[in-house]
Amino acid sequence: MAVQAPARRKRVSWLTVREWLEGYFFASPFIIGFLVFTAFPMLYSIWLSFQKWDLLSPPIFVGLQNFVKVFTDPDANLSLYNSAYYTFLAVPFQLVIAFVLALALSQPLKFRDLYRAGFYLPIIVPIVASAVVWQRVFHPEVGILNNVLGWVGIPPQNWLFDANLAKPAFIFMSFWMIGRQMVIFIAGLGNIPQSMYEAASIDGANNWHQFRKITLPMISPSIFFNLVIGIIGSFQVFTTAFVATNGGPQNATLFYVLYLYRNAFEYFKMGYASALAWMLFIIVLVLTMIQFRVAKAFVYYEVEEAR
After folding, report:
1. What is the pLDDT of residue 247?
2. What number is the average pLDDT over the span 12-27?
3. 143: buried, middle or exposed (CB in 10 Å: 19+, 13-18, 0-12)?
4. Are 243 and 160 in contact (CB under 8 A)?
5. Domains of the chain (ranges plus CATH)?
6. What is the pTM of this model?
7. I want to staple 263 with a disulfide (CB 3.0 to 4.6 A). Which of 6, 157, 269, 288 is the partner?
8. pLDDT for 10
9. Chain-centre distance of CA 210, in angstroms?
10. Which residue, 245, 285, 294, is CA-closest to 132?
11. Rg (Cα) of the chain, in Å, rounded?
């Protein structure tokens, strides 16, 4: 029986090596930036989460003490509750409002592009400026919102100065930033072939049936994307709370990232702040994995047949 000789190892040509080097050279700004500004801070924060450090004295190794403290710290639990309350109420309303706007602005309306630009414009306004404006809108004495409510006989509310109304006020404030979600929905609606609606109409399907059987399944990837990004972003709300209320009243708007910021840059507990950051990463990661798991049964991806 003849023994087959082992295959020769294919030598890499100098031209291939040169292409690799050129590719890494042109990608080096991103690679260096990622390693210096993303990878290294993340690895350093992992090490720091096991330390006790106040920026002045040398770090002291404390093991899992910082992570244990996260579960027993009442302020950490309160801040997580505030963030979860904000997330699971604000994000669904944002998606519904953005989707309704996208449906309306996908119709052949006069000045449609102007309306689209108007709803998207708040996205490019600096978030600090937006927070200051909304702080003025919610002012209990001279706020525009209370003036409007007074027209229908509703008495003035304290809004950002009332612990029961502060979080709903922030949820209402978040609707100002739905332009990005609206644009994604508009793009998804524009990719639905009109021939599907025409065929359904010929078969006798009314508008509701077309919406339920065609629009929703075809737009489900956009809904899923906006849902994932919305939950991740809402757990990181910081600037508006820092500028408008600084966590008040009575810690009603003490969101998780604001509490993390306080521990790091006001209390100088860098190790505990790092532990808080990684706990937030784990929470967001678990929620995202659950969404991907559930989405398999609801999200429709069109697969083109190979020609």
Report:
1. 92
2. 87
3. buried
4. no
5. 65-125+177-295 (1.10.3720.10)
6. 0.88
7. 269
8. 64
9. 30
10. 245
11. 26
